[in-house]
């Protein structure tokens, strides 16, 4: 259950779920395999979709698994509940749970899917001991949460996190999430769980627009993700992570240069000059660009960057970092979005054929290269392989990453200082 999809912003229909069926009866998964027998032990990828924890589904065209299956990967995509069906907490739900927690049902769906994979994937020629979880946006935030959750221990050994993590943003506490649930129940005149469960799904969905995602419930997530990682209590995995050049998402109008500088002064005080050196605003055009870059960095960049740094500093598992910079070819209103949020997905999983864009030869070459890196990582925890440009492992000192533009090229991360500045400000709040 979720709002009926319609193309919006940078996303054409290929990036969204089909209009039907949309149903509460949704907890299924899909398996693509080229294996001819159950003893082949092919590496497994489990895909977790994005959608802000309020939308999304495994039937999105760009999540098709056939291309990866042809590369000897067993590709699994799973559904999890979203919106209030996946994340509604309430004191009465907490009480009846028997574990003092409620509201993280969407994450528990993902864990149940991974448990199914562990128990059953051998029948499809998959290796239950070589499982990579991957996701983008809220799917990437889910991957981050699963790496942090003790309930997911032993269910995977590698992770791919594309544009999303939870290091410098506060997740709701259980008490905050329960308070939201109480307000929702009151708005529906539901005085008990029984009455709440009698509310039609569409009515519940309509009243619960904008509901948060996961909460720190003490069960799925024992504490904040940042704290779990700082204590080294996360599941130990190899990591491939990154974000896109043009995925800033503004939730209000573009400010003029003067307005932007004024707001910066109010927010950053004595550090305003430093902030404006990273996000300059000498003209309205420059300020507009800085606002998009700031949005990109706060919502996505600083999250995945922090994860890469923590993984590098702890030193037990490798991490590989990318930046997707290819301006996705487009016509009409879509031209302006560049290397937009989700734009890398059809390249990484070799699914350009599912997207109606004016692809150029360099796009098909890039999809071949990116998907080869992804396949190698899924197999071994190292994206490198024959006839591919060398992708250096990331370390917090040197900050080498792989950029995916018209070609794949290793470079130094260009904006580490800006991300360090933002992280220091966001984590101190």
UniProtKB/TrEMBL annotation:
<dbReference type="Pfam" id="PF00135">
    <property type="entry name" value="COesterase"/>
</dbReference>
<dbReference type="InterPro" id="IPR019826">
    <property type="entry name" value="Carboxylesterase_B_AS"/>
</dbReference>
<dbReference type="InterPro" id="IPR029058">
    <property type="entry name" value="AB_hydrolase_fold"/>
</dbReference>
<protein>
    <recommendedName>
        <fullName>Carboxylic ester hydrolase</fullName>
        <ecNumber>3.1.1.-</ecNumber>
    </recommendedName>
</protein>
<keyword id="KW-0378">Hydrolase</keyword>
<dbReference type="InterPro" id="IPR002018">
    <property type="entry name" value="CarbesteraseB"/>
</dbReference>
<dbReference type="InterPro" id="IPR050309">
    <property type="entry name" value="Type-B_Carboxylest/Lipase"/>
</dbReference>
<feature type="domain" description="Carboxylesterase type B">
    <location>
        <begin position="21"/>
        <end position="410"/>
    </location>
</feature>
<comment type="similarity">
    <text>Belongs to the type-B carboxylesterase/lipase family.</text>
</comment>
